[in-house]
Amino acid sequence: MTILTVVFCVIVLILIITWGKINPFLAFLIVSIMAGVLLGIPLGDISKSLKVGIGDMLGSLAIIICLGAMFGKIIADSGAAKKITEVLMKGFGEKYIQWALMITGFIVGIPLFYNVGFVLLVPLIFSVVYQYKLPALYIGIPMLAALSVTHGFLPPHPSPTALADLFEANLSTTLIYGFIVAVPSMIIAGPIFAITLKNVQSKPLDLFIPKETSDRELPSGINCFITALLPVFLLAGSAVLPYLSSGNKTLEDIFSFLADPITVMLISLIIATYTLGIKQNLKMKNIMDGYADSVKDIAMILLIVAGAGALKQIFIDSGVSTDIANLLGGWDVNPLILGFLMATIIRICLGSATVAGLTTAGIIAPLIAVTGVNPNLMVLAIGAGSLMFSHVNDSGFWMYKEYFNLSLKDTFKSWTVMETIVGVVGILMVLLLDLIV
């Protein structure tokens, strides 16, 4: 009976977001209270569960996501993203232009949230289209595939960061595994798949033709690359720090502090503020105003994450998480595939990759302890499912359609298929890793 209640609550959540057009944060709160009542939690304790769930979920996560938003803002405002693109374009040449744009999308997509990266990089795609007279989708899909994999698989993006926190996965290890999963996913969904789209007609709107910017206004290429990738270097490097302490308690404490994702993001932001801000003669007030704006832009993401935490806590406090673990744990299905399929179904119904990932995580979390599945791989399996079958209920679908001026048919044929390829290759890579690690 409790399992049916959970299924009913998830269906209600999907319906009030899709049909009722209720904001996902409010939808999570409404469904959390309803679930608490139906699952027999005393009315006086429901609000306590909501507070605990929201507090536990946002804890350190809010700091990491906010610092990540600020970091992405300075990368964009300083012109570092544009400079990275120019350097790669010159290095790869016209023959390998797709690969240049894909790598640009991957590098720039790591610090930037998806919508910001999309709006920032699409005009760069169009500038290449106009300059080299090449089909827009043939050029654009590789870059967008790269943006997609960073969004679904790599911290500090909200969904993989939140899932890693929820499953008590190691963020550095998740990042390393994420790279292994992301690279083949974006190559197959990007340059390889884009070859089939050469004949799809797309005439980008004149509105999106980028304005020329003087090179003198941009920071150096070395500065841009090192600073943009600094969180990656630091997070990956922190994975080996514990092995360097040799039992020294003082070193262990220092390395533990330096390996913390909050410390990593703060150090990266401080360095970026100097190298891409102050050093480029940007005024401190303007830099700080930009940081404030960046946090406003991701406020709703934080609230949605908080709402998912509330629902997760209701499931835990009611005891239904244990029932789910016992039921699903007895299924003869790989838990990673189960997480992938659940995220796929919710993604199709809701549209939002972040909401799909977090909703799945709240349900699937009990399996981590029962089955002993690698929590880092579960983060990536759910991430792969959350990218599947993007269609008309996904804002990214419509942004892509309008920016590239496509018909619905061609949008499905290009965007939806690209996102699905990312998800399928992603889960296959996760299962391959599961055999090795």
Automatic annotation (TrEMBL):
PANTHER family: GNT FAMILY GLUCONATE TRANSPORTER, HIGH-AFFINITY GLUCONATE TRANSPORTER. It is a multi-pass membrane protein. This is Gnt-I system high-affinity gluconate transporter. The chain crosses the membrane at residues 28-46, 58-76, 96-129, 136-154, 174-197, 218-242, 254-277, 298-316, 336-369, 412-433. One of its GO terms (cellular component) is plasma membrane. Belongs to the GntP permease family. GO terms for molecular function: gluconate transmembrane transporter activity. It is found in: Cell membrane. It comes from the Bacteria.
